[in-house]
């Protein structure tokens, strides 16, 4: 879907979670269901399945805490409720962060954002996926060399940290150089208007989802305000 739809979804999830906190877990659960359906509508089946599994586990833990008196030593009841309430924000936020950089830059250019803002947003949004890939590559390399075994890590913890830190720092330097070259090649310093091959216009389906998110966030917020007034 278009970037404005994802932005509206994220803002509605934040507003609904914040203003509808008095509605209890039911409000956050309703927003989480809408977020999962939103991901499925975009064809993000893997992300939707993973999010559904996490939401289901959190829901079971909440039910056990409330009705069975479950008490956990490490993962407290507060953390379960916090992640449950923030699950709609995490789901919609990840849908926006994982948007292809070309679509983000195209949208920001159309709304007249400064070049510094566009580059900053792109770097910030692509940092975590890039570092995740770098960490996975570093871990695989250490396993191939037998440096990730528990005995080796226990005997040489400082050396293990060095084996992890040095490749990641070098990867950060390489990514910075690649971003600079890519920005220059794409005309980031050009004063004229820039076009993009990645243009995803707002369609009827996107408008429908924006309306659904506004209704869902408004209903949860109003329900929270009513329940807060009753109390």
UniProtKB/TrEMBL annotation:
The keyword Zinc belongs to this UniProt entry's keyword annotation: no
UniProt keyword list: Membrane, Signal, Transmembrane, Transmembrane helix
InterPro entries according to UniProt: ABC/ECF_trnsptr_transmembrane (IPR003339)
GO-annotated cellular components: plasma membrane
Name listed for the protein in its UniProt record: Energy-coupling factor transporter transmembrane protein EcfT
Keyword Metal-binding assigned: no
Location relative to the cell: Membrane
Coiled coil: none
Positions of transmembrane segments: 47-68, 80-99, 111-128, 207-227
Signal peptide segment: 1-22
Protein's membrane topology: Multi-pass membrane protein
